[in-house]
């Protein structure tokens, strides 16, 4: 369960001014805040919810500990790691014990099978479903991706900053970057350009579209080559393992909160920001629900989505150039099924994760077509009472908000709609546990309206759907002095590594250059 950690609100509000105020305790906001505190700044995080973590928060019901969001982790159990989230944890000196594994289950139109990370096992799957020619194509794709993966990982995200100081921090990696100069330019384009030049087999193309969708919320023609190159560097190498934090996503959130507070930062829960204060065209602080104001000497940093951030700025203070970001395309939302079940008599080879695809013809982004199943208590029994399992089933970034818009959450219409739209998740889970409906001790259904309410997400959205090669993520800067942003609206990828990178880069940009360099030395990236 997430530790209910918060600082004394009265003492924080007693400060006339602090250095930085972060709006929202999502992973991006906590990463930014903890690093700023590590750099010696006075930092306060304002979180509207009673639980920190944003879309990654954890919650408990009747002894079952649920992850509200992310379920697939990698690169957290070793250092140095290419995962920006691990780089943040290393920088703030926090350990995150993990259980490692390498196999998950797939229920695809072609059939059911288990697959593993690493270089070879997927070739056995391809041989079974598509034959020897598909194996040849996959090996060729691995060969093509190898230099791109080296290029994508040549510069650790921990070295990035959005100011002239980047000349110093990035130049330390110039020899490595120069070796890959010919490939770096390919990383910003859509992965489909790489895929189209190598892969013809339909099974592989569908599989790659699926992986792209899980990474970015978009298929291969909208996902950057850099994102896939990171994945190939991390997943398809010898001896690789996937990770699951002991204690679930709540343990990850707690680690970031511990780092924040150990370095002198503060977290305020139940502190809903109603307005970003702008005076003389500069951001000066925030106003909380109830009227309390907190002033920021240096900046306010919003970890809310771009759409939700814009709602907090007074219209008269909102530059047209910033207001135009309201038109940022968005991914759809989620359906969630959180279950606490009786595990007696279940099959002994139950995996932690399963991916279910109903058909390929509709595309991976089609509503109710892709379903993910996470049973983390298979790896970490502490998440459920003895003899029980905790299960999280969800349709990732593909549930239309329009189906729910305007519904009263207390109405019979809403209850019926929940039952109807949850059916696809039940059916997916029945492919793995046929008698699942008779095993449930706890049953919770989440909808886009749940996302919208508890996560304060615009239309319950997963995040921006900015297509690689067509649009660009704006980074942390805004047209309003004293206001910066981090989180999924600022950095490509949407998922945990991307938002951690956004928070880290924002903090680095605000840090004195010598302290940033010292951090890189401390975590082993510079001698």
Automatic annotation (TrEMBL):
Keyword hit for Metal-binding: no
InterPro entries: Amino_oxidase (IPR002937), CrtISO-like (IPR045892), FAD/NAD-bd_sf (IPR036188)
Domain Amine oxidase: 27-509
Swiss-Prot/TrEMBL keywords: Isomerase
A Pfam entry, by short name: Amino_oxidase
Keyword hit for Isomerase: yes
SUPFAM superfamilies: FAD/NAD(P)-binding domain (SSF51905)
GO MF annotation terms: isomerase activity
Identification of the protein by name: Carotene isomerase
Organism whose genome encodes this protein: Brasilonema octagenarum UFV-OR1
């Amino acid at each position: 369960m997430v530790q209910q950690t918060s600082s004394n609100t009265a003492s924080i509000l007693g400060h006339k001014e602090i250095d930085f105020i972060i709006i929202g305790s999502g992973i991006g906001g906590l990463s930014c805040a903890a690093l700023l505190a590590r750099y010696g700044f006075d930092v306060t995080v304002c979180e509207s919810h009673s639980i920190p973590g944003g879309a990654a928060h954890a919650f408990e019901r009747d002894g079952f500990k649920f992850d509200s969001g992310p379920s697939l982790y990698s690169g957290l159990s070793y250092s140095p790691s290419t995962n920006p989230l691990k780089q943040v944890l290393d920088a703030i000196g926090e350990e995150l014990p993990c259980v490692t594994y390498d196999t998950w289950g797939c229920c695809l139109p072609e059939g059911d099978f288990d697959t593993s990370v690493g270089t070879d096992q997927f070739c056995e799957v391809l041989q079974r479903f598509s034959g020897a020619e598909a194996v040849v194509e996959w090996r060729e794709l691995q060969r093509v991706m190898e230099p791109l993966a080296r290029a994508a990982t040549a510069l650790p995200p921990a070295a990035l900053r959005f100011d002239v100081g980047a000349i110093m921090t990035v130049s330390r990696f110039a020899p490595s970057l120069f070796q890959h100069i010919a490939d770096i330019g390919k990383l910003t384009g859509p992965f489909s350009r790489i895929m189209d030049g190598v892969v013809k087999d339909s099974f592989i193309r569908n599989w790659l579209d699926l992986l792209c969708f899980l990474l970015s919320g978009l298929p291969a023609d909208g996902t950057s080559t850099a994102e896939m190159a990171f994945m190939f560097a991390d997943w398809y190498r010898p001896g690789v393992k996937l990770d699951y934090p002991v204690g679930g996503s709540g343990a990850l959130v707690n680690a970031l909160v511990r780092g924040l507070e150990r370095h002198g930062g503060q977290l305020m829960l139940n502190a809903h920001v109603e307005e970003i204060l702008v005076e003389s065209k500069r951001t000066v602080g925030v106003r909380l629900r109830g009227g309390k104001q907190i002033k920021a000497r240096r900046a306010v940093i919003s970890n809310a989505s771009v759409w939700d951030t814009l709602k907090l700025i007074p219209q008269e203070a909102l530059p047209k150039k910033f207001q135009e970001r309201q038109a940022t395309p968005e991914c759809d939302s989620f359906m969630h099924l959180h279950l606490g079940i009786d595990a007696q008599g279940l099959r002994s080879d139950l995996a932690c994760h399963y991916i279910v695809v109903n058909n390929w013809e509709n595309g991976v982004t089609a509503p109710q077509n892709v379903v993910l199943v996470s049973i983390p208590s298979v790896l970490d029994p502490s998440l459920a009472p003895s003899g029980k399992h905790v299960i999280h089933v969800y349709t990732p970034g593909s549930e239309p908000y329009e189906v729910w818009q305007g519904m009263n959450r207390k109405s019979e219409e809403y209850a019926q709609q929940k039952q109807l739209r949850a059916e696809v998740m039940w059916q997916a889970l029945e492919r793995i546990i046929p008698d699942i409906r008779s095993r449930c001790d706890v049953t919770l259904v989440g909808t886009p309206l749940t996302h919208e309410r508890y996560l304060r997400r615009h239309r319950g959205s997963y995040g921006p759907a900015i297509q690689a090669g067509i649009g660009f993520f704006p980074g942390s800067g805004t047209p309003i002095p004293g206001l910066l942003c981090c989180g999924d609206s600022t950095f490509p990828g949407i998922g945990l590594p991307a938002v951690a990178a956004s928070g880290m880069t924002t903090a680095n940009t605000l840090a004195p250059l010598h302290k940033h360099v010292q951090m890189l030395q401390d975590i082993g990236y510079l001698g």
